[in-house]
Amino acid sequence: QSALTQPASVSGSPGQSITISCTGSSSDVGTYNYVSWYQQYPGKAPKLMIYDVSKRPSGVSNRFSGSKSGNTASLTISGLQAEDEADYYCTSYTSSSTFGIFGGGTKLTVL
Amino acid sequence: QLQLQESGPGLVKPSETLSLTCTVSGGSISSSSYYWGWIRQPPGKGLEWIGSIYYSGSTYYNPSLKSRVTISVDTSKNQFSLKLSSVTAADTAVYFCARVGRVDDSSGYYYDYWGQGTLVTVSS
Asked: What is the pLDDT of residue A70?
């Protein structure tokens, strides 16, 4: 099973919006609405930020939103803040794995 | 508050077996609502799912690691364990244990609680 494809890095200035893409295939992102996004700070465990493509767990800022079009899912962070600087990973359920696959991760830099 | 804690040797020799245990506190590993999983992250790299287990003992493994992985559960100790055999330097990583559950009644299954992770280095 191949990992989902994410850009290695994205950057933005405080207050701006950024979008991170996550490209899969018809075997995962394109067929199933079980896409999630995790935020990870250095040396820490990942934290669930978005699930079921666009839902936010309790306590997650509404500046974080998710969407999907075809085989590509996206995470958008609006009103960028310094504390958003972290690594972000997408995951998706796949037809070949109940527990899904991870994207390669994207490093977000807040300029 | 649910907590997960990984434990085990931080250094393993090449060709030997890596063994880690995840102790769950603040909740029961025997709950029918959850699965329990192992995920690893090589230094400076991304996350990789290793495998998962249900309290009944049903297991699910990453096909790329399946021949070397064994995950087991001990409900009496509220623990689940990972064994990875014939390790090489490529298995050097931070190993996380995590709970897999539904966020709401209709959602898919996601990693909602994580341990802090433990670094395992494979070296002679």
From this structure: 96
For Cα atoms A34, A105, A98, give the angle at the middle one, nearest 5 degrees: 30
Q: Is A15 on the interface with B (CB under 8 A)?
A: no
Q: Judge whether A34 is closer than 8 Å to chain B, CB to CB.
A: yes
Specify the pLDDT at position B41. Answer: 97
User: If 0-12 CB within 10 Å is exposed, 13-18 middle and 19+ buried, where does residue B60 land?
Assistant: middle
CA B76 to chain centre: 18
Q: Report which of B30, B76, B31, B80 is spatially closest to residue B51, judged by C-alpha positions.
A: B80
Considering only CB atoms, B47 lies closest to which of A33, A89, A93, namely A89
Q: How far apart are the first and last CA of chain B?
A: 39
CA dist A100 → A90, B37, B61 (Å) = 10, 12, 11
At B103-120, the pLDDT tens digits run 888 888 899 999 999 999
Give B74-90 pLDDT, tens digit per residue: 999 999 999 999 999 99
Rg over CA atoms, chain A: 13
Strand B48-54 with A47-50, pairing: unpaired
Residues B110, A48: C-beta atoms closer than 8 Å: yes
8 Å CB contact of B49 and A105: no
